[in-house]
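Tokens for F-box domain-containing protein. Go.
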Amino acid sequence: MATSICPAQKVATGPFERGPNVSYDLLYYLATEYLEDAASTVASLSLTCRSMAAMLRYIKYRSVCVNLRCRSGENTGVYNDVSSPAERLTQVFRDDPQVIQFVKVLWIGQQSTSDLSLFIYRPEAIPERRALCYILTRPFPLLRSLTLFAGRRRKKDGEDVTMATARPLPQTLVNALNSAFALSTLSKVSISFEKSIPISSLRSLHSIDTLAISGELFDDMPHVTGQPGQTCRPCTLCIEDEGALTVLRTKYSPLFDFGGVTTLIIRHPGPRDMLTTGISARRFPAVITLKIFSEELEQWFRPWTPLGLSEFRTMKSLTLCFDRPMPGVLARNHFSTLISLLSPRSQPVQVESITLLLYEPFLLQSWNDTGNSNSLESHLRIRDWIYSYDQTTWKSLQDIFVASSTTVKREIWPNLERICIGYYSPDIEDHTKIFFRDALSNRLKGLVKSGLLQIEVERSAKPFREQELWLA
């Protein structure tokens, strides 16, 4: 007799029991295959009927979000919940241990907090800490992604004020984290806790593929020494802010092996230069994709010009994203920095794709009396920016890639297939999009005729540091 592939028990009521054409197991298979990353859809379907709720009981726990509890007021000890989400999830695991077998993605954190109860040594904080320790020490057989996130408090204009956390985690939680980090199935870890998670915990991440770090880690290792089999060897490394650059210090070299990193992503590194942070072809010899998102490109690259693309012998894709500078001298200096970065040295460059993304500064957008964005002012800003450069400046950018006959310089760029220039603004209108495309096409005719140039203009309501489009 054939057995059901669905682990849930059938319920006699519900529309799917009465349906003559769709079997229960087929519905379970479709939900398993096509709702893999649709947690909200699974949750909604679970509310339609008891049959669907029973069928999706375990599927909805594939992606688990645990919101950390925080104080309801700045100076009070009263929390938002009587029972925290961590405690409720712990109870689910205890009532039905089979749920643990289905968890693939685990997100623990808080988007916007004043004080997390994890760091408050008071009796009311103990249950949540115990619950988190219980969750993190479960033997998840399918867990592939773990995210630890504590949100920044922001002003209305989008500026970061401070991280919500700036104290080390209790040792019991650190031990639980190390247990989770050591899971053999874990392939992606994202950490965003300012000076809370000890850097020694990264020793356990010796089997992950992707590591994303935001904020400076807690330095609990005055003297770092390497141990066989206990180095972090990611294939994708995401440095999310200036604080996370500290993991690249020479002091921590025994903890990491960056020789296998194929994708390197750096976002808003702050007023530092690329050379002093330790990012070089010698340290990352296997990089295939390099993405750098910096508000002020010239500050990040000024001491290390040109970029030396030929030194990254394995790199195939380069993305540079930056805020559009103000028209005038700043814009011309910015453009000169960009040209210097892309200017090749004597050896051929193996890059296949180059992407230059300009984003309209979020803090510069103006608003009229009705609260709507002023599209006319945005149009004037981009016109002024383009007209800040004369024909010679535009030609100097074009001459890096093509000869006077509009043929690609294959002796320098033997594999180059695409140059994409993108512009993103929160208030761009259709006529501005047309102007931007036409203006660049007229000024870079050689790139157009060579078939390399691709121009993208999009409207976005978020600042570039929050763009999902640029997340890895």
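Residues 329-342 form the longest helix (14 residues).
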